[in-house]
């Protein structure tokens, strides 16, 4: 499989924020979000055998894994093999995906599906049929995440949250417009929206750096 990087750090986003994890960032992506903070993963990386990926993971004293990208589901067959072996070895695994692809076998294997719903400022669009199907089958272990940059994004996120009513919805201020976070809080409070507002913790700690 094509891997961009493997590193050991702390989860900076979503409901697992603060948990120490081994991050496996896979190469390739089917989108091109304007504010993407890992554009390098779309092009870089090297082909690594599954067993070599496992050996690298096992160097770290941690049983929590975050599979990210890029878009991991672009390598679904190799990913399925990796996940099967990780679960056999007793790892807790979350997958980060962009809301355009659905793979029931993979979603059944992982412990948490972290699915983006792309807002207008990204310049891209998630597939509502994918989000609806994931919500229907895996709501108990899914977080639906919205990266919000402005009022247009926020209004869009609120519409989708009200439509699907996910158990876990995350509104994440886009990092370069994080001052908008206070307005997000005011709006969520006013609407009584059942969502968490979470800024990217790893960027608070280290800034916008690769491999942390």
Describe the protein's architecture and organization.
It contains eight helices and nine strands. Strands 3-1-2-4-5-6-7-8-9 form a nine-stranded mixed beta sheet. By secondary structure, the chain is α/β, with parallel strands linked by helices. It is globular, with a radius of gyration of 16 Å. 35% of the residues are buried. Helices cover 34% and strands 23% of the residues. It has a single domain, classed as TIM Barrel, CATH 3.20.20.70.
Short descriptors:
212 residues
Q: Briefly, what is this?
A:
The protein is of the alpha/beta class.
Number of alpha- plus pi-helical segments: 8
N-end to C-end Cα span: 22 Å
* Structural domain count: 1
Strand content: 15-25%
Q: Strand sequence of the main sheet, in spatial order? A: 3-1-2-4-5-6-7-8-9
For the biggest sheet, the summary is: 9 strands, mixed
Question: How would you describe the oligomerization state of the chains in this entry?
Answer: single chain
